[in-house]
């Protein structure tokens, strides 16, 4: 990836003018863990021109031990000074594209994978826009689930630590150039949500990674713990990452049709159909952890049925109410959780939707009634299927999916499936507290 001399000059000038001493070079592994290393300011010019070498042999989904050398090529457009670090000898960050020693894009780099999928959309004339809603919990520490507050949905509780933490997090995100649209208390005690303003998918994936770090940094600075674990506490709602999404052609929303149902175009309906048709296959990526499937159960506002509608919040795909603005027409895909790898999650959702457009998938009728209240026979009659109920089931569906392989590329696809199988095998070998409490006294 070649970046302009002007963008590189801006970074070098900003470093000089703001006493930046360290620059963190960020990237992610296949599971979405933020990785990186720091270079000193005097090394920056060379890094912007040639990249910075590092050993990738121990990074999940990267090289084998005999192919360890990697190059992190900084993206100057992502340069930001970290506001939670000292202003003297300041610290900045840039996201990187990962290259092989030969200077070619590394196929195990999730950011590269998303770029590939965005290029496919661009060849069809589309720009992919997303707006995720990230939910998370605050706890007293990382070893317990003691809440900081007992608030509920949209509660305006008296000033407490959790409210102040959320406020400080929003201000820090905006200091990092990440616009925030909404922030509020969620349904469960000590559960909160910060929604980032709609933007292109690559920028948003970088923003999600930054968002998760900032929430944790601000919490840690106040001696508490923030987690994006999908379901840390039984019998209350878990944390999701509903992803609003649409395709634009230039400045025009390709999902909009003035006289269409819900103001949706044929492109939008085919995109919805693609998401629904491939929903089971992509769930291992949008919900990648054993714990993810503790959230996807009936009764806690998380989707388990593959359907779409406008008002109904029991559906997998919801069409937000039309507010009179063409650009606002979009869909909300409600399965993902905030612990996913956003680069890969955006990739599989986009690929599924584009498959629907390219192949003209017909969209089923919307389901406006509450699916949870239906009998199994009623759901079968309407052709309503369910998402995978466990990571094991999701892996089996993903590993036979040509769409998931197309979205991720062979390298990440095979590494991801292998990693998830290891995780499932480790999990199913565990003896849980539930089993001890239920069986030990009686068997």
How would you portray this structure in words?
With 443 residues, the protein is of the alpha+beta class. The chain folds into two domains: 102 residues, Ubiquitin-like (UB roll); 319 residues, Creatine Kinase, Chain A, domain 2 (2-Layer Sandwich), CATH 3.30.590. Helices cover 36% and strands 21% of the residues. It has 13 helices and 17 strands. Strands 7, 8, 9, 10, 11, 12, 13, 14, 15, 16 and 17 form an eleven-stranded mixed sheet that branches. Strands 1, 2, 3, 4, 5 and 6 form a six-stranded mixed sheet that branches. Helix 7 crosses helix 11 and helix 9 crosses helix 12. The radius of gyration is 22 Å and the shape is globular. The model has no long low-confidence stretch (mean pLDDT 91).
Can I get a quick summary?
The chain has 443 residues and is α+β, with helices and mostly antiparallel strands.
The outline comes out as globular
What is the end-to-end distance?
62 Å
CATH topology of the largest domain: Creatine Kinase, Chain A, domain 2
| Percent range of helical residues | 25-40%
Total beta strands: 17
List the uncertain runs: none
Characterize the biggest β-sheet.
Answer: 11 strands, mixed
Q: How many structural domains can be distinguished in the coordinates? A: 2
Average pLDDT reading: 91
Question: How do the SSEs run, as a string of H and E?
Answer: HEEHEEEEHEHEEEHEEEHHHEEEHHEHHH
* Number of H/I helices: 13
CATH level-four homologous superfamily name of the largest domain: Glutamine synthetase/guanido kinase, catalytic domain
**CATH-scheme architecture of the largest domain:** 2-Layer Sandwich
Radius of gyration, CA atoms, in whole angstroms: 22 Å
Query: β content, as a range?
Result: 15-25%
Q: How does the helix and strand content classify structurally? A: alpha+beta
The CATH class of the largest domain: Alpha Beta
């Amino acid at each position: 990836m070649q970046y302009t001399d002007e963008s590189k000059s801006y970074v070098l000038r900003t470093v000089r003018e703001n006493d930046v001493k360290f620059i963190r070079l960020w990237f992610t592994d296949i599971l979405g863990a933020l990785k990186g290393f720091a270079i000193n300011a005097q090394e920056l010019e060379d890094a912007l021109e040639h990249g910075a070498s590092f050993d990738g042999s121990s990074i999940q989904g990267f090289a084998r031990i005999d192919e360890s050398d990697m190059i992190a090529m900084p993206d100057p457009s992502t340069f930001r000074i970290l506001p939670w670090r000292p202003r003297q000898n300041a610290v900045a960050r840039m996201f990187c594209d990962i290259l092989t020693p030969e200077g070619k894009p590394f196929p195990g780099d999730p950011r590269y994978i998303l770029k590939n999928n965005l290029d496919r959309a661009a060849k069809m004339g589309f720009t992919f826009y997303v707006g995720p809603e990230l939910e998370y919990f605050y706890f007293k520490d990382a070893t317990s689930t003691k809440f900081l507050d007992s608030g509920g949905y949209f509660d305006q509780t008296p000033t407490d630590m959790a409210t102040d933490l959320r406020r400080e997090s929003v201000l820090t995100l905006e200091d990092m150039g990440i616009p925030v649209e909404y922030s509020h208390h969620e349904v469960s005690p000590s559960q909160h949500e910060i929604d980032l303003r709609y933007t292109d998918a690559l920028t948003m994936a970088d923003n999600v990674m930054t968002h998760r770090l900032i929430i944790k940094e601000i919490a840690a600075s106040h001696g508490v713990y923030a987690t994006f674990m999908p379901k840390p506490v039984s019998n209350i709602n878990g944390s999701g990452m509903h992803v609003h999404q649409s395709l634009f052609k230039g400045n025009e929303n390709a999902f909009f049709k003035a006289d269409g149902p819900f103001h949706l175009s044929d492109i939008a309906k085919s995109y919805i159909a693609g998401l629904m048709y491939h929903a089971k296959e992509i769930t291992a990526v949008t919900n990648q952890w054993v714990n993810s499937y503790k959230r996807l159960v009936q009764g806690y506002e998380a989707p388990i049925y593959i359907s779409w509608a406008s008002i109904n919040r029991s559906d997998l795909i919801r069409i937000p109410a039309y507010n009179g603005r063409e650009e606002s027409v979009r869909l909300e895909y409600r399965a993902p959780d905030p612990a996913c790898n956003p680069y890969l999650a955006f990739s599989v959702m986009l690929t599924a939707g584009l498959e629907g457009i390219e192949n003209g998938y017909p969209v089923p009728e919307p389901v406006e009634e509450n699916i949870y209240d239906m009998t199994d026979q009623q759901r079968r009659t309407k052709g309503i299927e369910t998402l995978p109920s466990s990571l094991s089931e999701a892996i089996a569906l993903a590993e036979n999916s040509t769409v998931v392989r197309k979205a991720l590329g062979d390298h990440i696809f095979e590494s991801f499936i292998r990693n998830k199988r290891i995780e499932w095998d480790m999990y199913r070998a565990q003896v849980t507290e539930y089993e001890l409490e239920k069986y030990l006294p009686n068997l």
